[in-house]
Amino acid sequence: MTEVHHFTYGVFNPIAAYLLAFMGSFFGLLCTARARDARTRGRRTRWLSIAAFAIGGGAIWLMHFTAMLGFDVPASPVRFDIAMTLASLLFAVVAVGLGLMIVGHGPRRLSRVIGAGLLTGGGVLAMHYSGMEAMHVAGTIHYNLALVVASAIIAVVASSVALWFAISVRGWAPVIGAAAIMGIAVCGMHYTGMAAMTVSLNPGLVEVHGIRPLTMIVPIMLITAATIVGVALSALQAMTEEEFTDGAGTPKRGVHAENNPWSLKQASMATPARRPSPRPGPVRSTTNGESLV
Fold it and tell me: Which residues are in the MHYT domain (predicted)?
């Protein structure tokens, strides 16, 4: 077995990875809180979808590859397969999204949280080990079964706790505390899975295909920026619709009317003008017997 480094750049990678896990969990929990207050199923689904990108894409996937930048095998080049890397992103977002949809719709029950936690934990494991499969070295990667099982247990427990927080935590202080716990759990699962791996070099393997780890920063930053912009725009649109419409999605009456003269003008234009109906006048008699109104 060859030498493997997990902290090539010192404490920078684990600290940056934890901050990303904390921030993704924090924004995800804020979105799930908005989802609980939504009056329609469609709006609740939108907020849960935004939370899935925040937690699955930010707190889990982005944390994973930020930590992976500190991985190095001194005796071998390390390269990444971009297609498998993107597939791991899909696993993370879909797994978290399915778990949130299960617990976010319907009654709040412990059995639902546990079932969704098993599903989400399995998706997180698929994300981690598919991401590891995307890493190529001049040799073969082996895993310690006991540590793999330990990482699976951590993933399921962390996912279940995160889903429980998603349907119960409210308020700034509890959300910050829950996000801090989720960040620790996500990082613990990752580094447990990393501790399970060993590398045996293959002297006959000279060329390693893929892109360099530091080159991964460019596509990851582009994907992250596009995701953040998309999530932010979707969240702003959802908040705007909730502000100007009631729970059924129809415009609120009397709200912001004084600040929106166009609404008053359009309402007056849309209402047809009515002419007053003629009222009968007194009847007068003439000399020849005819009546005049």
Answer: 9-200
